[in-house]
Design a protein that fits this description.
The structure holds two protein chains of two kinds. Chain A is an alpha+beta fold. Chain A has five helices and five strands; from the N terminus they run ββαβββαααα. Classes of the chains: A alpha+beta, B alpha+beta.
Chain lengths: 161, 767
Amino acid sequence: MSISVSMTVNGKAVSGKVEARTLLVQFLRENLSMTGTHVGCDTSQCGACVVHVDGQSVKSCTMLAVQAEGAKVMTIEGLAPSADKLHPMQEAFRDNHALQCGFCTPGMVMSAVDMVKRHNYQLDEATVRRELEGNLCRCTGYHNIVKAILAAAPAMKAAGV
Amino acid sequence: MKGGAHAAERHDSALRHVTGGAAYIDDLPEPPGTLHAALILSPIAHGRIAMLDLGAARTAPGVVAVLGPHDIPGRNDVAAIGKDEPLFAEGRVYFAGQPLAMVLADTLDRARAAAALARIEIVAEPAILSIDAALAAETWVQAPARLARGDAPAALARAPHRLTGEFRCGGQEHFYLEGQIAFALPGEDGDMLVHSSTQHPTEVQHICARLLGCDFNRITATVRRLGGGFGGKESNASWVAGAAALGAGHTGRPVKLRLPREIDMVATGKRHGFLYRYEVGFDDEGRVLALDAMLAADAGWSLDLTPGVVTRALTHIDNAYFIPHLRAVGYACRTNLQSNTAFRGFGGPQGVLVMEDAIDRMAAHLGRNADALRALNFYARGRDTTPYGQPVTENHLPRVWAEARQLGEVERRRAEIAAFNATSPILKRGLGVFPLKFGISFNSPHMNQAGALVHVYTDGSIRLAHGGTEMGQGLFVKVAQVVAEVFQVDLDRIRPAATSTADVPNTSPTAASTGSDLNGGAAFEAARELKRRMTAYAAEHFGAAEADVVFADNQVRIAAPGSNQVLSFGELAQLCWLGRVSLSATGYYRTPGIHWDPATMQGRPFFYYSFGASVAEVAIDTLTGENRVLRADLVQDCGRSLNPAIDLGQIEGAFVQGQGWLTCEELWWDDRGRLRTVGPSTYKIPGSRDVPPVLNVRLLENAPAEVATVFRSKAVGEPPLMLATAVWTALRDAIAACRQAPGPIRLDAPATPERVLAAVRARQAKS
């Protein structure tokens, strides 16, 4: 049985036919061919699939596509303000070598953006480490990821994003 | 020019990683007709297959084919170095999780649903589920390996002091964030393109061809990037790719096989767990006189890469220490568990634990400072040959040891920790210091070779292909930096190509920390050959001497008297083309001067040694066993680093991965041999709060490699993983603080809270 679902993804209205059991991440990757959002663990622990739904970070393997009906979804592909300008968090991850294999990076970046906003751009290192618990990285040891987020917070505030 | 050798350049894919534009195999577009595969696995650890009824799976919705061992046109064997390791079990099963068959369906959901319909009847037989059981039954995947020097029994008999020890370390799941995946696309007349998340494209090519019964030249294996490898995509990736290729060959349609995390963890091999028993003899000063050791590795059900792992464990049992008389036996225990395989360090991390345990016991026995005993036993002048006959030249042990201890403020913090422990009955802190010597090269000399293919186009842009795979470690940017340095052009003029058996054949896996040494060496040779051709042509064209043709800053200058000709690199490339000069070259590198006799375990297996040292501080809760790493200070020798930003990242990540292996990552099988830690909810890799909040990392400065490595750099992939051994030492130090008296501590790894608590209780019970 297929169900019609409509939502806004990265500012564009999209719709598609899904099964009731289709996960949001499947809808993004398979229906919309937006493959920047990754599936790492299948069981909602690793955070590689984090996107924003109505401004809040969500593990898109934990949410059904139909639950996002009418919602505003933002994925890693929609984060940069333009094709030649990165979001400050993306810039910070790139500059701080906060990535190695890159598979966790989209989810890390999306979690980090939401984290910084929720803390009103004021985070200390312990807060960042606590907030990052839902995102696993096997390569970096997190050190540079924490550095990147701490660097991005004031940059986001300055940029007003 | 920007981005030559030694520049702290960004990862080549950094921009694509942060924008979601970096494509992994599951992100590739699927042509119409693509089929998705799901595996059917044995639920039983050991037994005879009485019935495998796939009828219901075959008729399930969307299913196109169900393939078992009899559908393999070639040989049902996916062994890397051995033989008779079937892709699909025939007649018998040897571990719970062994693939039996594969379903191909039009969607992934339907393939997985159909796989669940298989009716499996296996008559269970007694299974060997532990190293101890394998030792008792003497079941091996290979004959015991022996490394010896001098007369250890006699030297032990003469030694003023003798101690025995026994402990264990666990295995380790790789937990690459991108699971195993392959995507096979059939071409015309039996050709096949196989995208595989593999560290070893050549082995993927060979095993696909073996299964399909075709020549190697029909198969092209390729990978642009892996979402993590760590050794887990060396041999394991080959059978996953082989299964996808089998499906594509059978149906004539593209087939993708992506293992869900649970299946990935159940079906693939891991780091080998070890059991150790040893006796060490030493003098009153604490100088080691002899070591008699037994290392038993859990090989799992098949040979896989175990011989190399056992060899590396044995050749790293000495670590930083001179052992005059040694007898070490390595058992490769055959069990009915997953077939253990490569994992970053490849037996080295398991090998280096022995002397750390021994020296701590010796120090407790003599009432001496363990750090002083470590330094006393370092390789040094006159005590500088390893038990396998290789001299330890370029010995940086005293330097890394001193620098790490200084960075970690060891003397001050030892006093501080002692004061803390004296007034803290529940929480105890401990400090550990660890020195490392690690041999760089594949232990098998023939594997130490690599190829590259470099094209210069007429606009001066460069395409770089080599046999190494990019799995996050920054190999592609490092090798591109080597080429940029040779041509003296900006790094962004060089485009790294996906690794492909079509560009560079007969490659070794990207493993053993050798990626940039080997592939950087090959790319260097290719670039140098092209530069030589371009130089010769420029000299001829402009009537100058070759010595007067200078490549610098994206330009080529003809510095002959009376000539002040300056061309861009691209202009010279165009000129060379007009002059009919080939602007494509292969490069080939083989590591010089290495040899090894596996029968006697003697030789010079390593091109050079990498050195490092670490200091770690931990705190334990003596009521719960919970523990934290509070701080770590690391000094690592990377020679003259090709890229310090990349190398620092490797060191940090490796340390944390090693910390996970030694502390929180516990594989757990039930009494029927079924792995029960099959996802991140039950298998705990370090998270953001588990890593030391203070992590100071330094590259050893002014330490260009003594041997002629590419631009005097050194390998970095594996050595720093072992620096986490300091965490294990620190935990034992904290446990020792539970009682004001000397005495040995036994702490098996992983040092989970449960094990720490047991060790604390054992320590307290002695008072």
